[in-house]
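Lab intake sheet, docking and co-folding queue.

SAMPLE TYPE: protein with bound small molecule
LIGAND NAME: fe (ii) ion
LIGAND FORMAT: SMILES
REQUESTED OUTPUT: full 3D complex as structure tokens
PRIORITY: normal
SUBMITTED BY: R.K., bench team

The fields below were copied directly from the construct record.
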Amino acid sequence: MTNVMTYPAVRRLNFGFGEQSAGSRYFADGSIVFSHLVAILSAIFPPGEDIFVRSVRRYSGQLADPELAKRVAGFIGQEKTHGRQHRELNEQLAAMGYPTAWFEYLLQSTERMEKFLDKQYPSPDRLPRLRHFFLGFTVAAEHFTAVWAENILKRPAVQAMMYDAEIRNLLNWHALEELEHKSVAFDVYRAVGVPESTRIRWMRFAQNCGIPILVLFSWLSIATTDVEGRRQPFRVLKETVQMLRNPMWKGFYSDMRPFKKRDFHPDQIDTAELVAHWQQELFGAEGQLAGHVK
Ligand SMILES: [Fe+2]
Ligand SMILES: [Fe+2]
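RESULT FIELD (auto-filled):
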């Protein structure tokens, strides 16, 4: 199949969060645990995506290939827009009682340090290991989110779990764009010659610790903010097991494996047909989000 879109397209959308009254608190499959997990993901996306943008932008002056520079511009535009829209949703989630501000604050902690170092050492030759560290994190996280995005878009069972239509719309749009730009950070990584071992080490960490950290954060979120959850520890335990068996994670670990090979490239996983289908489904003439485009 031919590539449907060469450059990641930046779409400005209006989801109307905060304009209507929020729906049920447990908007994800009616599950306390799954709803807290989705809220945490939404909370950490904006600061996480800011890290991705800074990591890639740091190398933008070194890119000899103008095509790649254009794709980087699209990548940055998409990630910035995701952050903005998730922040709007996070305000709604905070009004529903989720501690989104705390989780955003936690991940934002690197921002001040990164900005200080970028100002002190603007030359791309300074602190190469630290620059590689952040780019390696970004590349591994982009693979993590691309696998997630593929699972969200190709599994009707995951779609059916999103009870709130507007949250489902936001996640589908975000997932589509994650697939559209899945190889951009990776191509920057290769273009600037970061050792393969850095991204592979990050993936080992993400694979071993990603899901346990998310489960711990979900429990922490419930323990500190959710009276109903605190009163029902057995329900929380049962829903944690159900959440781990959720089709969203199906094949997750096996999909992480190819990334650890030295000759891996994200385009080796063919998602072109899925992307073309969802571009039409969301943004075609009769698309579900055609009315959301500003
Ligand atoms: Fe994103
Ligand atoms: Fe991304």
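REVIEWER NOTE: The radius of gyration is 19 Å.
SIGN-OFF: pending second check by T.M.
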